[in-house]
Design brief:
By secondary structure, the chain is of the alpha+beta class. It folds into 2 domains: 134 residues, Nuclear Transport Factor 2, Chain: A, CATH 3.10.450.230; 124 residues, Roll (Nuclear Transport Factor 2, Chain: A). The chain contains 7 helices and 14 strands. The longest helix has 20 residues.
């Protein structure tokens, strides 16, 4: 699991002002690097336990649920696993957490985006979920589970040069970048390309320019219009100076030539660089089962 939290200068949950420890407040994701990392590790343990299932040992699953879930997450997970548990076919599903990104961390509560590869032996799959967890009795327990989530982010911190401000500026920049890169219209292929090129920096810019004809033609011949779904989610993976890594999820809304709309879950990792007050993408890595 990729994380670069130790690159942050601030690694404690309190700062010192004239010799007095002042507790940090608000969204501490990546601000309290140590606390954020511990929370993500705790959620990883819980998620891998409750999203794995062996029909030969249902008691182990029940124990995992009792240990790692609380509140609405119990009902949410039960709905996700109902068909598997009631099926006559033997199942051994192993789930791992491959990517995580902090959306919100307040000390005793964390919300994150997580990418979960799943392997049943016969098939492999990939799910992007929003996980909310609370710390109870020294353990992080999942309190909310949303697959293919569409959730508003926390109120952004002003872009004032603080770690919180830079983080939220980068997340806002990621949404702008994603909107330009992944929103296309076959009726305006040149405009679609121009919007994408405007939000990329080197080395991605050179790649776009070298393949401009191919990109424009692909958009033109697609016969479709693609838009981001409501409340796309972005979470910070790492933030170092004027560079960041953001995990981004949306359900793309694809409208074909006949006006039919289909929804396609889409997860990608964006490498960002700050140019003045603007964030641009230097690399785009769609998250797939490969």
């Amino acid at each position: 699991m990729k994380r670069a939290l130790l690159a942050l200068a601030l690694t404690t949950s309190a700062c010192t002002v004239t010799g007095t420890a002042v507790p940090l407040t608000g969204n501490l994701a990546l601000v309290d690097a140590r606390g954020t990392g511990a929370a993500l590790d705790g959620v990883k343990t819980a998620a891998e336990a409750v999203f794995s299932y062996d029909s030969a040992n249902p008691a182990a699953y029940d124990q995992a649920v009792a240990t790692h879930l609380t509140g609405p997450a119990k009902t949410q997970l039960a709905a996700l696993f109902e068909a598997i548990r009631k099926g006559a076919q033997a199942v051994r599903l192993v789930t791992r957490v491959r990517e995580t990104a902090a959306v919100e961390f307040t000390g005793d509560r964390v919300r994150e985006l997580a990418v979960l590869p799943q392997d049943s032996g016969a098939t492999k799959g990939l799910a992007t979920v929003a996980l909310t967890a609370v710390r109870e009795g020294g353990r992080w327990r999942l309190s909310g589970i949303a697959v293919n989530p569409a959730q508003p982010g926390p109120a952004p911190h002003p872009d004032d040069g603080s770690t919180s401000g830079v983080r939220d500026s980068a997340l806002a920049g990621a949404r702008t970048v994603a909107g330009a890169l992944f929103t296309t219209d076959s009726a305006d292929p040149d405009g679609s390309y121009a919007r994408a090129e405007a939000v990329v920096a080197e080395p991605l810019r050179s790649d776009y320019r070298a393949k401009k004809v191919t990109y424009v033609e692909a958009i033109r011949t697609s016969g479709s219009k693609v838009a981001l779904g409501p409340d796309p989610m972005a979470g910070a993976v790492a933030l170092t100076g004027g560079r960041g890594i953001v995990l981004f999820f949306t359900t793309l809304q694809v409208t074909d030539a006949a006006g039919r709309v289909t929804s396609r879950p889409f997860t990608t990792e964006l490498d960002l660089v700050r140019e003045g007050t603007t964030w641009k993408a230097t690399a785009v890595r769609p998250v797939t089962t490969a």
